[in-house]
Amino acid sequence: MYKLIFFDTETTGNTEKDFLCQIAYKTGNENFTGLYKPEKKIPPEASAVHHITNKIVSALPSFKESGDLPKIKKLFEDPGSVVIAHNAPFDLIIIKKENIEPKKFICTLRLARYLDPEEKIERYNLQYLRYLLEIEIDATAHSALGDVLVLEELFKRLKKKIIDTKNLDEDEAIEKMIEISSHPSLLHTFKFGKHNGKRIEEVVKTDRGYLEWLLEQKLNGDGIDEDWIYTLKHYLGK
Q: Exonuclease domain spans which residues (predicted)?
C-alpha cells in the first residue's frame, strides 16, 4: 500500500530557470505549508498569480536553510511514497533543484488527458477542471495548499474513472496511474495559434513547416514542454 502525498509548489515563474518560494503537501490527515525566500526575485507576473511578493519573503530563510528540507526529502523519497501533482514534471524539476527526487509520481494533468481521448475537455488546468467537474471545496485558487486540496479531490475522481473503465482494484489503479504518468502525453489537437482547433495529424500534411518551427521553439525554450516535444516528434516521425 503506497503512501499518497498530494503536493504543489508556488515559484518565481514557470520555466526551468525558476525557483521555489512555497511548498504545500497533504498526506492522510497531515497538512503542511512552508514559505521561503527564493534564489531570485519574484517577478510581478508571478506575484499576480500566487500573491507572494518579495516583501513577504524578504525576512524568510531559503528552503535549504529553513530546516524543512530534511523532513520533506525523507517523506517524498521514501520508496513507499507516491507524490501527486498537477503537471507534475514542472513541480518535480523545481524540487529537484532542492535535492528532492521522489521515486514514484502521479501527474493528474496527464491522467486527465489520458481519460479524455476524444479531447472533449477544452482545457486541463487545475482550476478549470475544478469548476468543470463541480469540485465543491473551500480552497483558495493559486495558493499552494488550496491547490493541494483541489488536487486531492480531482485525484479521487480520476482514480474512480480508472477503476471503473479498466476494471481494476484500488492498488492496481494506482499502479496504472503511475504508469500513465511516467511518459509524456500524446496530444491530438492545437488549442492555440493559427491552427487553433485543428487536428495535428491534419496540420502535418498541410503545414509541416509550422510543426518543425514549433518543435525548434520548444526544444530551445526554457519552458517545461515534454508533452509538446514528444507530440511534435511523433507527428514529424523523429
A: 3-164
